[in-house]
Amino acid sequence: MMKIKTITTTPFDDQRPGTSGLRKKVKVFQQSRYLENFVQSIFNALDDFQGKTLVMGGDGRYYNREALQLILKIAAANGIGRVMVGCDALLSTPAVSCIIRKYHAYGGIILSASHNPGGPDADFGIKYNTGNGGPAAEKITEAIYQHSLMISEYHTLETADINLSSIGEQRVGDMVVEVINPVIDYADLMEELFDFNAMRALLSSKNFSMRFDAMNAVTGPYAVEILEQRLQAADGTVLRAEPLTDFGGAHPDPNLVHARELVSMMSGTNAPNFGAASDGDGDRNMILGCDIYVSPSDSLAILAANATLVPGYARGLTGVARSMPTSQAVDRVADELGIPCYETPTGWKYFGNLLDAGRITLCGEESFGTGSDHVREKDGLWAVLFWLNILAVRKQSVADIVHDHWRKYGRDVYTRHDYEGVPTEGANALMEQLRVRTGELSGQHFDGYTIERCDDFSYTDPIDQSVSSQQGIRILFTSGARIIYRLSGTGTEGATLRVYIEQPENDQVKLSHDAQTLLADLITLSASISEIEKHTGRKAPDVIT
Ligand code: VG1
Ligand code: CO
């Protein structure tokens, strides 16, 4: 007989969700009652879920399976009616979003620490998504946190572990667990949006080849099904296709540093025409052409400018949005198209209301995140397929498309410098001293640069009027250049300072020059204005993208 048990517990005080759910070291999650408390707090913060359906899965990292077993038992004891779970506990973040929407589920739980490393000494995470398929809004994540601070008991079902390795339905107490193929619904959605015939023709032509680096993370099975099966790309197109609990010891973050092998493969005479990579949970993307890296901000702008070439977007865009630190490249495209462009705080949850209200069709973040109204998460493979569809129609190289774009709209030369794992006190002090100086910095002149305005970004959601303040210090120059400082909300060790530097460039000669060279003066200025070395002890960033 399966029995519902109520277990006494006491709160942990560190369960406030960050930019994208609760992220901690695996060892923190493995503490007795830690995950139980958080999951029960989710249910305590929600209403009217009795008998309803949740979607669950994760990126396959260490502790994914164990955590899911525990969550299923708590869900059953709390009265959930059905859980759709990806086979072997796997579901990419965009696939969870797709499945919640397609089957009108009540919500979903995603187990992932995204681009953070995995393994017993690395990171784990959990995120709650609502019925629109997107990350819970701040109001809900805050309610979950408040419940976590006053929790005194949780409910769980006493039962043996549930078999998650074969597709089909089983009963767990009064709840049905439906183990589903994690790939099919998502792949079908991609087929609705893109011109698979044109893309198949491109991939089969002698002059074209591509590589997709799944980084031993969750997109492997999705990419094999979509690229190698449905689009018939050559075997071996998908690299590191097998999801591993520790991502092969690597950092599943698709950028120039962590996807180094793919990057080096993309240069030289035998280089493929198109290269791409995705992160741990499949919501990020990096786009490469032969000898060219497309910055995520440019990629968003290029997708917006070319959207009508793709069947799913042939009717045009209602509007676009970008996170505040994302470059202003997409703003220029919106201007030209005569559609609104919204500037939101960092984190996908801020796009949700705009997408639900139909105000925007495409949106993106500089952190390798691009997406549209097809789901409510950023979507790595979707962005790759979008590019492939554009390449199939325009029959030009990635580099030609980027250079054409810059010639038409100008270029927003862009870089992000990350100082990782710096002392929290120093990072807070750096932000605080900038915050108090915002007034005094306005109007100041530095070698060739004049500050027009400086503020701490605050956002009022145009749909529900909720206000999110202290979202990053912006220094806006009269030339259109910007320097932005924010602290990461996804790290698990010390603080991570992100400095975003951008400058518009219309000089045709300089269009193809290297971003670090073009931005050298602003980079120096960004370090001196905020006294980075004094506050963090660092002379240089750890990661430059
Ligand atoms: C980072 C990125 C942000 C992104 C978030 C989640 O947050 O900057 O743009 O939405 O990660 O992405 P932060 O607070 O560390 O800067 V994912 O792929 O980790 O879910
Ligand atoms: Co991610």
Please describe the structure with a list of short key phrases separated by commas or semicolons.
seven-stranded mixed sheet; seven-stranded antiparallel sheet; binds alpha-D-glucose-1-phosphate-6-vanadate; Alpha-D-Glucose-1,6-Bisphosphate, Chain A, domain 3; single chain; TATA-Binding Protein; binds cobalt (II) ion; 545 residues; 3 domains; alpha/beta
Task: Give a verbal description of the structure.
With 545 residues, the protein is of the alpha/beta class. It folds into three domains: 4-181, Alpha-D-Glucose-1,6-Bisphosphate, subunit A, domain 3 (Alpha-D-Glucose-1,6-Bisphosphate, Chain A, domain 3, 3-Layer(aba) Sandwich); 186-409, Alpha-D-Glucose-1,6-Bisphosphate, Chain A, domain 3 (3-Layer(aba) Sandwich), CATH 3.40.120; 411-544, TATA-Binding Protein. Helix content is 33%, strand content 26%. The strands form six sheets. A seven-stranded mixed beta sheet has the order 2-6-5-3-4-9-8, with helices on both faces. Strands 20-21-24-25-26-19-27 form a seven-stranded antiparallel beta sheet. Strands 11-10-12-13-14 form a five-stranded mixed beta sheet. A hairpin with a 2-residue loop joins strand 20 and strand 21. Helix 2 crosses helix 3 (64-77), helix 2 crosses helix 5 (138-150) and helix 10 (296-306) packs parallel to helix 11. 54% of the residues are buried. Bound molecules: alpha-D-glucose-1-phosphate-6-vanadate (VG1) and cobalt (II) ion. The site of cobalt (II) ion (CO) has 7 residues, from loops.
